Amino acid sequence: MDSATGAMGSLLLKLGELAMDEYNLQKGVKKNVEALRRELESMQVALRKVGDVPYDQLGEEVNLWARDVRELSYDAEDVVDSFMVRVDDQGSKGMVKKVAGRFGKAKARHDIADEIKDIMERAREAAARRDRYKVDDAVARFNNGVTRPAAAAGDPRLYGLYRNNAELVGIDEACDDLIKALTMGAEGLSNQQLKVISVVGLGGLGKTTLARAVHKRLKRQFECTAFVSVPSTPNIEKVFKDMLLELDKTKYKDIHNLIWDERQLIDELGDFLSNKRYFIVIDDIWDIPSWTAIRCALVENSAGSRIIATTRDFSIAEQIGIPHKLKTLNPESSKKLFYGRIFGSEDKCPMHLVEISEMILNKCGNAPLAIVTIASVLVAANKMENPTNEWNKVCTLIGSGQDNNQHVQNMRKILSLGYYRLPSHLRTCLLYISIFPEGYNIERFRLIRMWIAEGFIKPEKDGDNLFKLGDSYFNELINRSIIQPSDYDYGVPYASYESYCVHHMNLDLLRSLSTKENFVNVLGDILQQTSPASKARRLSLHNSKLELTTTQTNLKMSQVRSISIFSGSGISLLPSLSSFQVLRVLDIENCDLKEGCHLDLRHVCNLFHLRYLRLYECNYDCELPKEIEKLKFLQTLIVTGEVRLPSTIVELKRLMFLQVPEGTILPEGMGNLTSLEELSSIDIGQSPNFGKELRNLTKLRELELWWDEMDKSLEEVWIESLCNLHEIQNLRIFAVGDSSLDFLGERWMPSGRLWRFVTGVSCLFTIVPVWIRKNPSLLTNLTDLNISLQQLRQEDLKALGRLPTLLSLDLDADKSECLLTCAGEFCWLRSFRLCIKDSLQLTFQLGALPRVEIVHLGHLSVQDTRDGGNVDFDVGLENLLSLELVYVYLRRTTGTIDSDMESAKSALRHAAQIHPNHPTLVIKESSL
């Protein structure tokens, strides 16, 4: 399923299944089903082409046609699903119910015959409108460049090329950093060789502005220069002609009038650049094929030539050259830009607008495009009768997708260039993020499970794992700088991010697009504008004080597929759950669902289409209904708090993801749930017999175990079961009291699939487990390791350093030797945390941890200099070449005086100061 085609993809598959003999349809009905499938296949092709065109580049009639066909696909899929549920329900034992089942199936077949006729009639009417509105011609005109945005209304990115110097706030430091990267010789590369730097970051961050500023500064140092932009729909021949014209405006003044093909242009560029020292900026690389073609024309020479390419995609940046990640503005520069645009300077801001200004700046997220856009809106607001009221309105509208101010629309056009470059399946997954409130931390795995439940993820070939595919979708959105990790929390390993967010600019775009496509109805502080006739397909309630307008109450909710309720928002406004006959996703958090609540969970067992049920901190202190076994399609069940599981849970044979609160007693028969892929948080003490059943869950990828104290007699059972789980990728083990894990370290050998292994600080190995020490090279997927030890030895640290793909290492130990990290160890590590309870003595040698960005150290011992200790406090931070953030706990030993602590702090600050990255340094003190 994708947003452009509605439910068409999954519907076509189901229509194919429906025509099979097992459903016993009459010959005439089968014929109608097949005819409908062929008609809809043609419409799917047209819908996909329409979806690739920006919304404002097609006529209103074409957009209305596409919306109606999407609605038709949803309605048709609901009909087919309802029929399949009725036919597949075999009922209970007993002759009477079997006979009743036969009559029920006959009626279901009669009903679907009538409904298929109705859908076929609607499909034929839509086909006639497609011809009448000339839908295919409208798409063809866009693809041929007749109605392309750059031709119709100007390329919205052009403003970034020609900004007034006064607006380039905070650009000097960014320019200096980029120039330094351009001019410094990289390892194995002389300054005379061609050097390529790729500037990467989300849309609106100022990549074009920065590249233009650097180009302006350096152009006199080169024989020839060029600055060219790549269209969102690349035209490589035009790019080459633009490049030649920029390189020599006299020689190539008529280049755009010449009919040269790509090969001729590449040859011409090669000849022109072969012996010259050149500097070329290629702005906005959208894909690798475009870059490959451009790179063919940029000849290698030993004249010290330089290339900058900008992109929004980190995976593309890595293939272009040396990635240079562009940061947001610092808070001071953000304020200077914001207040300068509106008032001329910060001190001219009226006192009554200071508080609301801070709120607006926070929403802009230090992104230059957002600041400039919102500032332009506020300049106009200042001219109105009640500026304060207008500023409050603007603040509320940010991120809502409802502000249609011309400046905001222009910002959306810039951001939408990246959106329309996404494959259709990724556009759908991204658009779904609009269900979340502004500023919400989105859990990675939760979102992927919801995508699966909605049918957004389809296997590309037999045997494909849906979660793995969804994870690759998520990573693609990260690479394209659309979603990003939530604010870093000191001490959280780099590779362990589980919560992500979307910048307010991108959320505003997604909400705007979602409204136009009737993809999600968001009911919050800003009520989404919808047609009174609209059928709500997905509801997201954000505001607990929500009162629906007449327009909102006219939404047809009987065909809602997804409901997300945040913090009790608007829960009393919903009808009974039994009204949502085709609901697939029900996600409720922080709501009071005790007996007597308006939303009676007893009705959830009649939601036969439900795939996803999440009750997070919902104050539902009783057992789930026993009738939950009727939810035959349920894939995800997540409950927290005091919720208890009924014994019938073991009948949910399609269940893939189960998360229960610690202390939950698992019923007998859990081994029957052989589709389970994720299982947490299992309390071994409460369910001691589960150890034997665990061995049957051979599809498990993720497992989280808890215990108060491991019964020695059960160790062998758990080891045998764990050894039978060959798909385990993520294993987390926690204990309430101190507990030894040596039995696991010595007698369990994980498969090569393991990518994350985490233990709580109370779960101790004596030394690093033997399955790491013996042959680290076998653990080819282990990227995230978090363990606690009684002792960390130098030889064990070296073994850890040989793990081939480790990205994040988090170590706690009671005591350690004096430790040294050397070059050639931890080659891929990004985050290093080491905390020794006794005291830590550690030195980083030059070339050690070459990719580490985050270091967390505790507790570094500061000894009494009167006893000869710490005269030269140096851990070698300056030797970590990629360092961005350092978090250090210093520990006083007996006799340590204030001057010793200050000397240690001064040494650390000096190391950070002389480091080329000037990493952020946070120092705290602790005592023995």
TrEMBL record:
Stretches assigned to the Disease resistance R13L4/SHOC-2-like LRR domain: 559-921
Name this protein carries in UniProt: AAA+ ATPase domain-containing protein
UniProt KW Acetylation keyword: no
Domain NB-ARC: 188-343
Record CDD domains: RX-CC_like (cd14798)
Domain spans labelled Disease resistance protein winged helix: 435-509
Keyword annotations: Coiled coil, Leucine-rich repeat, Nucleotide-binding, Plant defense, Repeat
Family: Belongs to the disease resistance NB-LRR family.
Domain Disease resistance N-terminal: 7-93
Organism: Oryza rufipogon
